[in-house]
Specification:
With 112 residues, the chain is an alpha+beta fold. The protein is built from four helices and six strands. The strands form two sheets. A four-stranded mixed beta sheet has the order 1-4-5-2. A two-stranded antiparallel sheet has the order 3-6. Strand 4 and strand 5 (45-54) form a beta hairpin. It is elongated.
Length: 112
């Protein structure tokens, strides 16, 4: 494996795109190797690095099947259920709390 080309920010040649750019075009890398990388310099820190892929080798994004939609809905529902009171909080429970806000901060603590 040889070294990959490194380009400065905004100077990458046409035909190369980041994952995010591919996704915006409805594409995915599709298992191809990284073709190059682009570096964005920063002061007093290491540069930001983005990997580039060949657009002509990219494949279309796989469509969502009904089973995938169902699995995604189930996962999102699980993120909304409080493990303490077992109620749907109406929002995604923050991982920092690990439970809904009323369980994390009961009325006794709020009044004090």
């Amino acid at each position: 494996m040889g070294a990959i080309p490194v380009y400065r920010w905004r100077l990458a040649p046409d035909g190369l795109a980041t994952r995010r750019q591919l996704r915006a075009a409805g594409l995915r890398p599709g298992g191809q190797e990284v073709a190059a990388q682009v570096e964005r310099p920063r002061r007093r820190r290491e540069p930001l690095v983005a990997y580039l892929y060949r657009v002509e080798q990219a494949k279309p994004v796989r469509p969502m099947t009904p089973a995938k939609w169902a699995a995604l809905a189930k996962a999102n529902t699980a993120r909304r259920v409080c493990p303490e009171c077992r109620r749907d909080a109406g929002y995604v429970i923050p991982p920092s709390l690990g439970m809904c806000t009323p369980c994390a901060f009961p009325e006794e603590q709020r009044a004090a």
